[in-house]
What does this fold into?
Amino acid sequence: MNRDVTFDMPATPGEWGWASLRSLNHLRRALQYPVLGIAGLLALWWWGGWVIANNPDTMAFASFAPGPTLAAFWDLVSSGQVWSPIESSLHRVGFGLLYAILIGVPLGVMIGYFNVLRETTHVPFQFLRMISPLAWMPIAVLAFATWDAAIIFLIAIAAVWPITYATAHGVQRIDPMWLKVGSNLGANPYHTLRYIVMPAIAQDVFAGIRLAVGVAWIVLVPAEYLGVTSGLGYAINDARDTLEYDKLAAFVLVIGLIGYMLDAICVRLIRRSSYHAQG
Amino acid sequence: MGAAISIDYITHHYPKQKDPTLKDIELTVRPGETIALIGQSGCGKSTLLHMLAGLLIPSEGAVRINGHQVIKPSPRWNMMFQKPSLYPWMTVRRNTSLGLIFQGRRDGMNKRVDALLETVGLADKAEVNVQSLSGGQQQRVALARSLATDPELLLLDEPFSALDAFTKVELQEEVSRLSQERGITVVFVTHDIEEAIAMADRVVVMGSNPGTLKHELTVELPHPRDRAGARFNELKAELMEFFGATRHPAARREDTDATAPDAPEEGSAAAESEPDSESGRRAIRAA
Ligand SMILES: Nc1ncnc2c1ncn2[C@@H]1O[C@H](COP(=O)(O)OP(=O)(O)OP(=O)(O)O)[C@@H](O)[C@H]1O
Ligand SMILES: [Mg+2]
It folds into this structure.
């Protein structure tokens, strides 16, 4: 939904100053707590690094501390080395999610719509859902010709459940009156789907996708520990083997940052697709 | 042009219900006529209306509109409900246009919708999201949406019962005016005796268990109707009496003197919109 924000035009140029000062103030207030949270996390990290560095048993891992990590991170970014593993990983996650959406949304619509289907699929789906996607690994490797395809399969099988169930939940929440009014107004099944069902469940679908992105991003790294020679998971494993702990920590940082950004995109999509008057 | 309806001996059994909900309902409605259906809660008014709309098929008998048996919903007969049931993700314009979009009548759609919104007094709200409208305004959008497809028949299930007294009277008069201008046949369900007399050409009183048509009252008054007029209030009292006769014996005893205090001294037409049967009874007990 579009919510246009309109600002009153100031009468004199002087008022621009006030307006921008006020919005600066607003910004400060909006950022206050997030900045505090980030500072807390950095402090904890720094303290952890200090403890590790001062303990003779763990001294070898001192480069996990913020200083070396951030230096390595900067190295990765400025040399451009960071992009290739990101690209491979996003490619896998992207396709995994795409398949999960293509399967999960229609499946969820049907489960939400037909009680019989919901009850029939309940036990098998809950059973399948509770199997760790990584448990499928050996099967995936056998079933798919390439490692890439196997990883995409693992991501898809992990991501399909939250999308399916969030979609089904959205369908169940559809006001039956909307459908009644629709058919009264002459809607055919395509109209019902396009003008009534889809907008009604959009928010739930994106909420499901958000959960799916979280799961997919978590499954990705361990899946990339095996077989492949690209991606963030591989990069971490590789850094461990070559004892470059600062680089390892820098990749962990990259994984966190990208995960955060993906989640933020999903949050925006959820907001935009919500039809409720208040965000 | 308004639809002619003939209801031919409808009996309806909901699955798993022991007794029929409706029994031997027979009624003929002339094109352009306005019929009020009134009766106790649970007597099957909504059920009957759903059948007229083609949203429910009777287990026996048939509904015919212009001679054709009704077997599925059609934008030629539109139903409006107690709740406006607008689509909250759409603007007023979009909600109103929907029937036309579904019918593929996009040519000149915006002009049509503008004219309709003008008639229901929402011309300036066309591009606003419907969630920001009041209950009365939302019901107006629902009315405009129902009228957009040029229906021959409007079916209204307690459409104004959730509105305040003033808005209610306004909308009652609006529906009467629009249906007369366009010659639309109207069948509406109400619990409000004044609403029935104010809008209907004929009031049909239903009895319950099983739902049957018990009485008919013809309202010959011209529109717009003077709600303070003597004849208006006479008819109200008469209807109250019919209505009392359909009640359960226990409820009926309280109603024997129910019709009396109702009538002539009622002052302002708008403010004192007739209490529905429930609160009417309460008012009498308090007196
Ligand atoms: N879908 C259904 N399945 C089974 N029984 C139903 C169904 N809908 C309604 N009934 C029963 O049919 C009877 C009539 O219901 P209906 O909704 O038509 O009454 P009504 O006259 O509109 O009542 P109200 O004034 O309270 O709206 C009721 O006893 C109700 O329990
Ligand atoms: Mg009802």
Q: What stands out?
A: The beta strands of chain B are 5-12, 22-29, 34-39, 60-65, 68-69, 77-80, 153-157, 185-189, 202-207, 212-218. The CA atoms of residues 52 and 143 of chain B lie 18 Å apart. The interface with chain A takes residues 53, 55, 73-75, 78-79, 81, 83, 85, 87-90, 98-99, 101-103, 129, 131-132, 145, 149 of chain B (CB under 8 Å).
